[in-house]
Amino acid sequence: MSSVGIGIVGLGGMGQLHARNVLEHGADVCAGADIVDSKRARFGEEFGARTYESYEGLLEDDAVDAVVVTTPNRFHEPIAVAALEAGLDVLVEKPLAHTLESARRIADAEAKSDGICMVGFHNRHAASTAMFDEYDDRGRFGELTHVEANYVRRRGVPGPGSWFTDPGLAGGGALLDIGVHAIDLALYTLGFPEVTEVSGITRTTFGTREEYADPDGFGDDWDAAAEPYDVDDSTSAFVRCADGSTISLEAAWATNREPCTDFVVRGTEAGASFEIGDNDLTILETGTGGCDHYADVDLSGDPSITGHLEQDKRFLEAVATGVEPQTNTIEEALTVQRVIDAIYRSSETGRAQQLADASDQEIQAQLD
Questions:
Q1: What CATH number did the domain enclosing 240 receive?
Q2: Which domain does 196 fall in, by range?
Q3: Rounded CA gap, 265 and 282, in Å?
């Protein structure tokens, strides 16, 4: 991978994390772009990379073979589309875009490009998921029937005034920020079956309160009166699939319950539980040997395996070899985006939503 040159657009914490992963895998961080002077200066000093104020300048750098996009959601589309039109490979952080329409345009651009686009759903590469995949491939769980997906913070609303709480920049709140991880992982676990119906409700309960208890100091400079926002801070949803499998979702930046990232998979022969992005997995079985009994098996994975590191390795391999990736594909990300869009529509209308959509079918035909 030493000949692969990576340019990173968005030089905050996520951009720096990807840059370190790129170096660990032996590729070259050759360029970075950000509108903030201090971020460019820090990034250039740490990684020895050329820096640009605009992504257009970075895309014109001949040393750049692929681009990692870690900007606010609204800017994913223009950067990813421009990179793909230039024939470059792209890794865009989750979600694919701030709206379904924007996500469709990125998918359309990839279908017409020589470049590939992967989407940053790193939790499917964590040790817990890798172990689950192995035992699922062996048939240990039988037919998978249901996933309970939780990504719940007791108090964890990003500070008002940040782009996370600006619907124009983020596109949504807790659902689009952290719920997207749980939805992707659930669909991935089930093998991305066809989704037929989605129902859900989103709530804005805490973000507009002048007195908001934030014991862990998750959000800086809390002032709801000065910086109101119109995004969701919790979501409950239910997803039906054509093969009969289902997903229940709880996602929240803030809610009056214990925090939870539990992920429970139910199968006809056995079940599994783990925390999203963790290294441990419990297989839940029963038996009749000797007497009827429960048989729970605890597995502890290699802690050096992290989702981000493994995901970036897969991306760099695709860039280096030119082989289409088999994971984190834009087709999968578009399905996730459609589910999120359906949850928001269901919440607005008070009715379950179907996912049949001619525009998506046209894009899928191009991708196929």
A1: 3.30.360.10
A2: 143-267
A3: 10
